[in-house]
Structures are given as structure tokens and as C-alpha cells.
Amino acid sequence: MSNSEYLYINLLKHILENGTSKEDRTGTGTRSVFGYQMRFDLNEGFPLITTKRVPFRLVVSELLWFIKGDTNIRYLLQNNNNIWNEWAFLKWIESDEYSGPDMRNFGLRSQQDHEFNKQYKEQLEIFKRNILDDDCFAERFGDLGNVYGKQWRNWKTSKGETIDQLKDVIETIKRNPDSRRLIVTAWSPEDVPTSALPPCHSLYQFYVSNNKLSCQLYQRSGDVFLGIPFNIASYALLTHMIAHECGLGVGDFVHTIGDAHIYINHLDQINTQLSRDPKALPTLKLNTSKKSVFDFEVDDLKLEGYDPHPTIKAPVAV
């Protein structure tokens, strides 16, 4: 049995046993620890959690969205990916153009009030249809600002120029694999006030040794039940894709988290997850006819042998 999932399970247990109770911007409340690291050997299998189902196609479409440099949720909705909806929806309901029922604090109210939850779902469906069908609406309310795709592919400089960080780092890996500057950053202090959600996975660095590519992510903040399994899978996938383009094998994915937290309203779900035994990890299959990271589409990235325990649903704190 792979050790990879136990790294994640041990993080859950560590927070439950040692975490500090903290308030947060969502008003939900968390148990939190500061400074935690996991090291996943990518040769053991693809590190997608098996003690609950994690929808791999959502991981893929979100990562490709970042790689494309896109910041509008329309691409995600076109791929039936709803994981960024709430932040764009918030932008709409706070605008002068919104005329529906009061949606303030919808994250918490939808959990506590059945009638409100029905209204919220109705308004969210209206919002999604408008994003998909109305170009002007999508442009105004679907764009999340300077989030990951923009920072990775179109970083703006003080001279008014732009830097394609991702493309540059891939070319450097090919040309100078021993470089200690194989870094992509998403954290820009200037852009924090205008981003829908300032980057949680703030910076990542690559390292080449023995013809294998490793990646370390520094994540300033991590929702350990909902977000961290996605983040592990996403950066493992990115490492595989870049290794493929650069003609390298894969090494480790090292995940360093600043504020690693469990939301209080996820405790029951975590207890359910911890009652389950991990299963064998799946295997990643890339379409090897695609030579560049920038050529991949959703159907080019698949898993074999993924047989997880059932989904465990939990609310997103917005």
C-alpha cells in the first residue's frame, strides 16, 4: 500500500489533535496549525485521495484553465466545473445590476435555512446560464481578476511589460536543469486587493536530480478537507506534464502549507473519512502525442485504477 494517502490522513489527525481554534474571514471558524509539510513520491502512484472520491476531471480542467492563462469561469462552466462559481457569484450579487433576493452571506445561510438554500440555488443557476450564454455578462462578472492564470502566464512588471513565468520556467528546465531559480509565483502584493481570492498556493519551485523532476509548493492557506486534496493532485499533475515535455521522469511533490486548517462545519465529514481505509493509488496516463504542456486538453489526461470510497459532500466557505 502506498504511503502517500497516509501523509494526508496524518495531517487531518494532526490538526484535530493539535490545532488552535481560530476565527476566519468567512465567519465559519477553523481548527488550524501553522507550518506543515508532506512529501509525495510520485513513483508510488498518482496521489489522488481514495478515502473519498475526488473528481479528477475537475482537477484537470482547473489546471488547464490556469495553464491557459484564463481567469474567467466560463471555460470552467463549459467543462462542467463549478469549483470557482461562488467567488464570481459574489461579484454579481454585490453589483448594482443584481436585482434578485438578498444573497448576503450566502455561504452560511444556505446551510442553515432550507428556503434560502432554494433561492440561492435558483439565483446561482441564473448566474451560470448568463455566464455561458451572454458574452457581455461573462466579461463583467465571470472574470476573477488577477488570479493564478494571469500570474502564471501574464505577470505584469513595473515597466508595463509582461512575463510568461510558466513558459520561461519550462524552457529553463530544458536549458539549465540545475538552476535554483525554477520558480513560478502567484503572490503579488499589488494585486491582492483586486483578486476575487488572493492566491492560496502562492509559489512553486522545480528541482531536477537524476533525470527526475520534483516540485515544491508553498501554500499560504489550505482548506484541508476540500481544497488540499485538489491541490496535491493538481501540482502532481503539473509536475508530470512538465516532466513529459522536458523528457524527464518524476520525483517528489513536496507540499508545504502555512495555515493548514479544518473548517468547523467539516468535522463530521472528516470523521467519516478517517473511518475508511485507503485503497491503492491510481496511475496517470498522458496522451504522449502531445509534446507541450500548452497543447493538452481535458481528454488527454486520464487515470487508470481509481476506485475510491464514495464522495463526502461539504460546504465551501466563501
From TrEMBL:
Instruction: Enumerate the active-site residues.
Output: 200
Q: Which SUPFAM superfamilies match?
A: Thymidylate synthase/dCMP hydroxymethylase
Q: What is its EC number?
A: 2.1.1.45
Record's GO cellular component, any one? cytosol
Q: Where does (6R)-5,10-methylene-5,6,7,8-tetrahydrofolate bind?
A: 223, 317
Q: Summarize where dUMP binds, as residue positions.
A: 25, 180-181, 220-223, 231, 261-263
GO terms, biological process: dTMP biosynthetic process; dTTP biosynthetic process; methylation
- List GO molecular-function terms, semicolon-separated: thymidylate synthase activity
At the top level of its lineage, which domain of life is listed? Bacteria
Its pathway, per UniProt, is:
Pyrimidine metabolism; dTTP biosynthesis
Outline the extent of the Thymidylate synthase/dCMP hydroxymethylase domain: 8-318
Q: Assign the protein's first listed, main location to one coarse class.
A: cytoplasm
Q: Per its UniProt record, what Pfam families does this chain match?
A: Thymidylat_synt
Please give the CDD domains that the UniProt record associates with this protein.
Answer: TS_Pyrimidine_HMase
Q: Which UniProt keywords apply?
A: Cytoplasm, Methyltransferase, Nucleotide biosynthesis, Transferase
The protein's location, in the record's own words, is: Cytoplasm
Write down the chemical reaction(s) this protein catalyses.
dUMP + (6R)-5,10-methylene-5,6,7,8-tetrahydrofolate = 7,8-dihydrofolate + dTMP
Q: Which InterPro entries match?
A: Thymidate_synth/dCMP_Mease (IPR045097), Thymidate_synth/dCMP_Mease_dom (IPR023451), Thymidate_synth/dCMP_Mease_sf (IPR036926), Thymidylate_synthase (IPR000398)
Enzyme class per UniProt: transferase
Q: How does it assemble?
A: Homodimer.
Q: Tell me, what does this protein do in biology?
A: Catalyzes the reductive methylation of 2'-deoxyuridine-5'-monophosphate (dUMP) to 2'-deoxythymidine-5'-monophosphate (dTMP) while utilizing 5,10-methylenetetrahydrofolate (mTHF) as the methyl donor and reductant in the reaction, yielding dihydrofolate (DHF) as a by-product. This enzymatic reaction provides an intracellular de novo source of dTMP, an essential precursor for DNA biosynthesis.
The entry assigns this protein to a family as follows: Belongs to the thymidylate synthase family. Bacterial-type ThyA subfamily.
What NCBIfam families does the entry give? PRK01827.1-2 (NF002496), thym_sym (TIGR03284)
Q: What's the protein name?
A: Thymidylate synthase
